[in-house]
Design brief:
Blueprint: H1 13-45, E1 51-52, E2 83-86, E3 92-98, H2 103-119, E4 123-129, H3 139-168, H4 179-186, H5 191-200, H6 204-216, E5 221-222, E6 224-229, E7 232-237, H7 242-253
Parallel strand pairs: 1-5, 3-4
Antiparallel strand pairs: 2-4, 3-6, 6-7
Length: 255
């Protein structure tokens, strides 16, 4: 090859044209591949499926806690079918949507219990079931079990039951269903009557309706809470730390 002669000077114009066209096709293919890959990965991380909402860094793909700000969301009014603790005339109502097999709900329940002990006269705590059936196949039946506990023993029995479930479950579908009647007996309920209620499927449809209602309220994961104060609905997604949760309630009380 003489001085100054380029590699491409050996090709005819026609050959050079097809070589350039081929190179462009390869480049477009590579770019298209990575664009498509990005879309696929995004869809896998944001495909509308409900996931357990964890604190930042706990699990890959889990929703991070969000800052509390009033939003235009629809929340079913608190009624006789709800399980409620606290002052019925409280200025602040906190509705919690929870899954008894969700590990983040387990930790958040501790924060909520601490919060209620400190603000029992100032807040009304409402517990609504939101079992994530895609992740925790046992959670819907556990939610029904809590309903049966409330059916047999009233409001106090319901709260004692979920307290006990959260205390003993390893979470993530780890609780043996055989423990459900034992928990009922441990909190003073008639085990035979409890088993009959649970086996009957009496509350199966109610839990399905609760799931629908939670989604309508904006829940996309658990735990999910809505703070209601002065006519405003403020959603809180994820197992936010106690101090952060307390700050939200303090701000709501000042409204």
């Amino acid at each position: 090859m003489s001085e100054g002669e380029s590699f491409f000077s050996k090709f005819t114009p026609k050959t050079s044209f097809f070589a350039g066209l081929g190179a462009m096709l390869v480049i477009f293919f590579v770019i298209g591949f990575f664009v498509l890959l990005g879309l696929v990965l995004r869809d896998k991380g944001d495909n509308g499926k409900i996931v357990a909402a964890a604190p930042s860094g706990d699990v890959a793909g889990a929703a991070e806690p969000t800052a509390a700000a009033p939003q235009d969301i629809t929340v079913k009014e608190v009624g006789e079918a709800d399980w409620v603790l606290g002052n019925p005339e409280a200025k602040v109502t906190l509705i919690e949507y929870s899954d008894l097999e969700c590990p983040f709900c387990k930790s958040f329940h501790e924060s909520m219990s601490q919060l209620f002990n400190e603000y029992s006269n100032d807040i009304r705590w409402v517990f609504r079931s939101f079992p994530l059936t895609q992740l925790h196949s046992k959670a819907p039946k556990e939610a029904e079990a809590a309903e049966c506990a409330g059916d047999l023993g009233g409001n106090d029995a319901f709260w004692k039951y979920i307290d006990k479930v959260f205390a003993i479950t390893p979470s993530n579908n780890g609780l043996d269903p055989a423990e459900l009647p034992k928990i009922a007996k441990d909190i003073g309920l008639d085990e035979q009557g409890f088993t009959a209620c649970l086996d009957s499927g009496k509350y199966t449809q109610k839990i399905k309706d609760d799931i629908t209602e939670a989604a309508a309220a904006g829940a996309q994961g658990t735990p999910y809470s809505v703070i209601i104060a002065n006519g405003q609905n403020t959603p809180v997604s994820g197992a936010v730390p106690y101090d952060q949760l307390k700050g939200y309630v303090d701000a709501a009380l000042k409204q």
